[in-house]
Design a protein that fits this description.
heterodimer, A: alpha+beta, 10-stranded mixed β-sheet, 13 helices, 18% strand, elongated, B: alpha/beta, 4-stranded antiparallel β-sheet
């Protein structure tokens, strides 16, 4: 006769409510795990999206995602000539704020040369950039439909396609435009700024007799050079040795070549490391709280059964039977709570503002942890049950 | 051979100045099928003797034999006390002590299942017994919905279902009115005789003494006479 099953059946409503409460707690643990994994996936999506093998960046920098990196955009032509390089393309990054209707959308602008490495891996709806100018492929997360027109500075873009799940390290939607457009967004100054700079340049020219002879227009190309990119992305031939290509590129004085794995490491190990650690720590705290709560619930449940346990001892129930009652109830609580947690997180994870990536492997590990927690927590109840004095079931007379 | 033989059973609580002798040199011998009462005022040692005989709270000194087997030799318990109780004893409590989350029939079937009887057989035996006690119609309900008299009859059924050698009852009628108390005592006597079990009933209610083979009177931890 299974005593745990019968006890649960008898107090089913209360047991279910307790399991539901535990389920909410475990759903929070699952959400934190999903946020943790989502953060990593989001961060890596921007690195993985172009499908590049190497990132050529400014020397002594970790690349444009980690810090400022500026290199000439036509460097890609030289890189393409390196043996083993299948394709190369310049890429420029910039974070901006877009206005769409009443909404302000933060977006990571990615400028690339259409037809070369650097563009989105796939367009989920609409089409890739074709015209070369004033077209944009946005991530679906921005909530802007195909055909919408967005104004950035002095330029107006038509949204021609949508990607799925390509976001910046901060979870902002990506916006693919042509490299030239990206350079103009980055370097084309507002009218007010141009007027101010022209006035300042004229003043400088007046003050320096050596330059006074030069007309201001001849200096303009120097101060307005916009032919810059943040990195050159490289796709290697299948037979190419990446280390060999890296060595060749790094022989040039001003550049550094990182493999995509190294670029990912820069992100995961540096930029988002603290956030990851923070979430991991919070997850551990939540699991510890869960353990304490389960232990308290089991202790209370055992205390309520003190007289019944004493009676069981008097009529001869062995400790194994009494311990089994507590352990099975603990495991049942864990299973039900876990089940509720899974249902809850499955129903809600898509509505979180940032990506919550629920991985099956993580869920299995959590399930194991929950079972272990239940066993651990049941020890408190079992110890209490085994310590129950059987005489408490009898009358107090002497 | 007596079903219960207790010799010079003594129980002392505490040490030094707080030392209390709750039971002193108690001698009890009850034959199979015999029904005896333990009478005495509160604090006279009746329940202490019952706890000692069932090894729930073993004595400090003395010897106890149950069904011919020495189970306490004055120094230590010589058997697995819980195994002894579930196989050879039936215990009835003042407050019935039915397990609240088991139905009536499950409460009765619990002891046989603890002894390894299959659930199906145990439930069948329990139903038969409840039918005999005219409680068959209450088999599937929880104890909380039974009256006090019904609960105590179920407790009696739980105590006798395993054909025990010894039935120990601690004030089984204390929480019942006279009529229901008498009915429970009649049932206990009837089943005890039928099963040839030694029945020891602790009571301080003289109205219930009718029908006992012997009465042990206890005063201040000693058995005065039998």
């Amino acid at each position: 006769m299974n005593l745990a099953f019968r006890d649960v059946k008898y107090r089913f409503g209360r047991y279910l409510l307790t399991a539901l409460g535990l389920g909410l707690l475990l759903a929070t643990v699952m959400a934190m795990g999903g946020i943790y994994r989502g953060l990593v996936e989001d961060a890596l999506s921007i690195v993985r999206a172009p499908g590049a093998d190497l990132w050529v960046v400014q020397k002594d920098t970790n690349g444009p995602i980690a810090e400022s990196s500026r290199i000439p955009d036509d460097l890609y032509r030289v890189v393409r000539a390196v043996p083993g390089v299948g394709d190369a393309g310049p890429i420029a990054f910039q974070t901006i704020q877009l206005d769409y209707g009443l909404a302000s959308i933060r977006a990571q602008i990615i400028g690339y040369k259409p037809g070369h490495v650097g563009g989105p891996p796939a367009v989920g709806a609409g089409r890739p950039i074709a015209a070369g100018r004033y077209e944009m492929v946005l991530d679906r997360k921005a909530g802007v439909p195909i055909g919408a027109r967005l104004r950035i500075g002095r330029l107006t873009f038509a949204v021609v396609g949508l990607t799925d799940g390509i976001v910046s390290t901060f979870g902002d939607s990506t916006a693919y435009v042509s490299l030239r457009d990206a350079q103009e967004i980055q370097f084309l100054k507002a009218n007010e700024t141009v007027r101010n700079e022209q006035a300042r340049l004229a003043a400088d020219l007046k003050a320096d007799p050596a330059l006074a002879a030069l007309p201001p227009s001849s200096l303009a190309p120097i101060v307005r050079n916009t032919n810059l990119a943040n990195a050159i992305l490289v796709r290697l031939e299948p037979w190419a040795d990446p280390n060999e290509v890296v060595k060749r590129i790094e022989r040039w004085n001003h550049y550094r070549a990182l493999t995509t794995a190294e670029q990912e490491e820069v992100l995961a190990g540096g930029i988002i490391a603290r956030t990851r650690q923070q979430i991991l720590l919070f997850r551990i705290i939540l699991l510890t709280v869960s353990t304490v709560i389960i232990a308290l619930i089991l202790y209370t449940m055992t205390m309520e059964k003190t007289r019944d346990i004493a009676t069981l001892k008097i009529i001869g129930a062995p400790n194994l039977k009494i311990g089994g009652l507590i352990l099975q109830e603990a495991l049942g609580l864990g299973l039900l709570g876990y089940g509720f947690g899974v249902l809850l997180i499955e129903a809600t994870y898509e509505y979180f503002p940032r990506r919550v990536a629920i991985a099956a492997g993580d869920q299995v590990v959590l399930f194991g942890i929950v079972l272990a927690i239940c066993v651990l927590a049941s020890v408190v109840g079992i110890r209490r049950a085994l310590a129950v004095d059987p005489t408490t079931a009898m009358g107090g007379g002497a | 051979m007596p079903a219960v033989a207790a010799d010079n059973v003594t129980k002392i609580f505490g040490q030094g100045e707080s030392r209390v002798v709750a039971l002193q040199d108690a001698r009890v011998s009850v034959e199979p099928g015999e029904i005896v009462a333990l009478m005495g005022p509160s604090g006279s040692g009746k329940t202490t003797l019952l706890r000692a005989l069932s090894l729930i709270d073993p004595p400090t000194a003395g010897r106890i034999a149950i069904d011919g087997e020495l189970v306490f030799d004055g120094a230590s318990v010589l058997t697995d006390d819980r195994r002894l109780r579930r196989r050879r004893m039936g215990i009835i409590f003042q407050a019935y002590n039915l397990i609240p989350f088991l139905t009536t029939v499950e409460n009765v079937a619990l002891v046989p299942t603890l002894n390894g009887v299959s659930r199906r057989d145990a439930m069948e035996r329990a139903r038969e017994l409840l039918d005999r006690l005219e409680l068959g119609h209450r088999a599937e309900i929880y104890p909380a919905t039974l009256s006090g008299g019904e609960q105590q009859r179920v407790a009696v059924a739980r105590a006798v279902i395993n054909d025990p050698a010894v039935i120990l009852a601690d004030e089984p009628t204390a929480a019942l009115d006279t009529g229901r108390g008498k009915a429970v005592m009649d049932l206990l006597r009837q089943l005890g005789r039928q099963q040839r079990a030694a029945v020891i009933v602790v009571t301080h209610d003289e109205r219930m003494l009718e029908g006992f083979d012997r009465v042990y009177h206890m005063i201040d931890g000693r058995i005065a006479d039998a």
